[in-house]
Amino acid sequence: MLKSFSLFVGSSQCNANCKHCAGNILRKYAPKTDGIVDEELIAKTAVACYNEGARYLSLSSSGEPTLSPLAVTKTLEIINGLEGMEFYPINLYTNGIRIGSDEGFCKQYLPLWKNLGLTNFYVTVHSIDEKKNAEVYGVKQYPSLDIIINRVHAYGYKMRANIVLSKRTVSTFEQYVAMVEGLRLKGVDAVSAWVIRNDKDEPDTELSPLESELDKMSEWAKNQGPEIRLLREKHMEVYQKSEKLTLFPDGTLSNTWCGSTED
Fold first, then answer.
1. What angle do CA 63, 244, 193 make, to 5 degrees?
2. How far apart are CA 212 and CA 233, in angstroms?
3. Phi and psi dihedrals of 212, rounded to 5?
4. SS3 for 68?
5. Rounded to an integer, what distance in angstroms lies between the CA atom of residue 183 and that of residue 179?
6. Per-residue pLDDT of the chain (263 residues; tens, 9 = 90+)
7. Beta carbons of 63 and 25 less than 8 angstroms apart
8. Which of 18, 143, 193, 196 would suit a FRET pair with 165, their CA atoms being 20 to 30 Å apart?
9. Strand, coil or helix: what is 173?
10. Which residues pair with 197 in a beta bridge?
11. What angle do CA 155, 45, 88 make, to 5 degrees?
């Protein structure tokens, strides 16, 4: 039975320059400007997925979705307008940069998106340290996590911090625990972590933490409550069982990340 439905929205524009960007393989399919949305395809696909059992909706992008606010707004309006159907929760994946650095954007769009059904922001966090976050994101300055978290909460959303486990950032049990505890102290509502993946959506063997470290992380996370999750190959199994489908920028509906990239 289908559980989750995911949509890629917006252009390929991004305000970060990550060395290991999962969106790179999909950017050639994305619109070049904000506001371009295939309304009919989104509505048709959403209805089909809902009828198959999907209630959990995520919005992501091959770029940074907060830089495509018109597309995000149009997409939420489409979903909100489906009669007799309610997706919950509705999550937006983001790097958090615009939320933390552009108060005007937050005032304009966060209340609007809340009214259209958006419930959570999923923010990828590479480090508690702002300088390290900036380094990994390839930017001169990364905004304060405290500001990002406070703004998300101020507009009535919940925030999940996503940790990408990598030898560049968090790769040992001690680093992982310190990261989770630090994020908890800052007030995030949940923390998820998974191993860094390559462009084939497989664990990057060169950059992944040692299995022995992952074992310790997993065991610790299991005892921390449902808001703390460490995903290993479980999320790939979800895709393979077709419990989650994603509508990719080229119009492909697939249960594998790379399903939309074959010419």
1. 65
2. 15
3. -65, -35
4. coil
5. 6
6. 899 999 999 998 989 888 777 666 677 778 889 999 999 999 999 999 999 999 999 999 989 999 999 999 999 999 999 999 999 999 999 999 999 999 999 999 999 999 999 999 999 999 999 999 999 999 999 999 999 999 999 999 999 999 999 999 999 999 999 999 999 999 999 999 999 877 666 788 889 999 999 999 999 999 999 999 998 865 455 545 558 899 988 888 988 754 433 33
7. no
8. 143
9. helix
10. 203
11. 30
Which residues pair with residue 190 across a beta bridge?
160
Alpha-carbon distances, residue 38 vs 42, 72, 211 (angstroms): 6, 12, 42
Residue type (1 letter), 163: I
Beta carbons within 8 Å of 221's beta carbon, 6+ residues apart = 180, 193, 228, 229, 230
pTM of the model: 0.92
State the burial class of residue 163 (Cβ atoms within 10 Å of its Cβ: 0-12, 13-18, 19+): buried
N-term to C-term CA, the chain: 29
3-state SS class at 115: helix
Both tokens of 20, joined, read 């290991």
Instruction: Name the residue type at position 258.
Output: C
Output the six-digit token pair for 22.
Answer: 């999962």
Residue 45 has a pLDDT of 96
Asked whether 195 and 202 are in contact (CB, 8 A), the reply is no
